[in-house]
Amino acid sequence: MPLSTSSNFARPDDAFRAIVEAHRGLTEEQSADFDAALVLILANHIGDIDVLREAIGLARRRMIDDQQQQQQQQ
Amino acid sequence: MAPANTHQAKTQFGYRRHPDQDRPGPRPAAHAVVIVGAGPVGLSLAIDLAQRGQRVVLLDDADRIGEGSRAICFSKRSLEYWDRLGVGDRMVDKGVVWSVGRIFHGEQQLYQFNLLPEDGHKRPAFINLQQYYAEAYLVDRINELPEIDLRWRNKVTALEQRNDSALLTIETPEGAYRLNAQYVIACDGARSSLRQMVGAEFAGQVFEDQFLIADVKMTAEFPTERWFWFDPPFHAGRSALLHRQPNDVWRIDLQLNRYADPVVEKKPENVRPRIARMLGHDKFEFEWISLYKFQCRRMDRFIHGRVIFAGDSAHQVSPFGARGANSGLEDAENLSWKLDRVLRGKSPASLLESYHTERSAAADENIRESTRSTDFMAPNSHQEARLRKAVLSLAKETEFGKRMVNGGRLSVPCSYDSPLSSLDADAWRGGPSPGCSMLDAPVSTRAGEQIYLTDAFRNGGTDFTLLSFSNGAPIDAPDGIKGIRIGGEGGLADPSGLAAKRYAAEPGSAYLLRPDGYVAARFRHPTRSAIAAALARAEGLY
């Protein structure tokens, strides 16, 4: 099963909001710790190494693209 | 420091002049096989080859068995190999048997694992035994075998590759001499001088964190289990390992930081308070102290002309996983039968290439596993440390977190994606597939004696063996294959049904086992031609 990138939540704003609120009031350090745990929990829930690798690839590609765009704008 | 090794095993040996050193004329003595290095791998390989009828010269630059316990965990697979070499009982009788490991975080146990949770195996998951005992028992066995010529204080100082041999220059207390060998097997350890002589690189990863390894003698009530701590109260922020050996000796590993001064840290007066904090007392004596930085690396090619590398000379791993000595022993059992066949002209020299293919893939697997363990113990970055912290925290209440905690993944036999294997032509659900190691199971002889499949395999003489499950009809097997038959008239009985179960066997099923106990092929309906084809493939004949 490939990584699903179509919108899976009936109410995407609720999902985004839930994650945002979980970070409210946390220090940078706490936020990073929290994210690390959340990533591991979700990765295990997916339970498919190919999907996980694809997700890692997508996140990495976006990060690099964004960095390049920023550099071009400067 | 000198080992407090006053036990019965002989560890000191004398140099003896050999007639090869006084050979007149310009032509040096010629031998089929010269093994360099009398550690566990070289000693075991020499015995294996000798039992196959090969004459072996075994050289070692020292005159004694190495100091310190060094390797201590010997796997089920290694014990089964040593059974075939006639030393298994002695190792197991002296060793401490274990199969349970516990992982702690701080004071809390995160989880425990059992490496052999089922009955019906001749050998346990692991024994712990000081390497010097293992070597001493192997040397004793060698002394029973006239085919092996073990020469202490013989140091190889030069190597010259010829077309069909290698010329060695050997330094002794009484001067140098030369030997010509059809094959040289380099079992001379991680700092292999033969590797330098063939000009091969030894590339890989160096881990910056240092580990203090101490063997201490004390009477203690800890169970015979492997205990591993992350961030223990007695050694904050780092990891620790406690493991029992025979004679009330305990192996303790403590992770130190990468900037620790090795000379200072190794001093007994500095080690003592660390260990005392761990144990809660200081009623112990040191047997051995060492400080390590781990490396995970391998040679690109295990075969260089007429020189074949085995054990640490070819590949090096970190110790968390018991993959060093055990993988070296797997090298030996993989190489021995192939070299024997090639020397007898029964298989082409290209069969040896499968040694490189199979064992370098195994080395990659061992390096991958031990690198992951070491990285987990000593995270490389702040973010890696953060992810590890998350895993350790999740492990307190989730099963998946426990299984991600990596305090060492212990050695199991590799499976080979091998040119010697024949792919399954039939449907199998379970059982060892081609390229996997045979599985043990209890069986009984016609006389009612309970033995194990590994015994039956060994008694057959560790040649190619057809393990078949009777359906009443005789099997039409090619000549020259040993047979182990389960069930039927004259066959071994399988009263527990475990043999059939572990091999997912139906009446009529058969497995072709290689001389090293690996599955070459398996058949639901074995025919003479199918078995012969699989045999030829496994023999490297095409």
From TrEMBL, chain B:
NCBIfam families in the cross-refs: PRK08132.1
**Domain called FAD-binding: residue spans:** 32-369
Q: Which organism is it from?
A: Bradyrhizobium vignae
Q: Where is the composition biased (Polar residues)?
A: 1-11
Question: Does this entry carry the keyword Endoplasmic reticulum?
Answer: no
Key word Phosphoprotein present? no
Sorted UniProt keywords: FAD, Flavoprotein
- Signal peptide per UniProt: none
Task: Give cofactor(s), names only.
Answer: FAD
Annotated region (Disordered), positions in chain: 1-28
Instruction: Report the protein name in the record.
Output: FAD-dependent oxidoreductase
Cross-referenced InterPro entries = FAD-bd, FAD/NAD-bd_sf, RIFMO-like
Q: Which domain of life is it from?
A: Bacteria
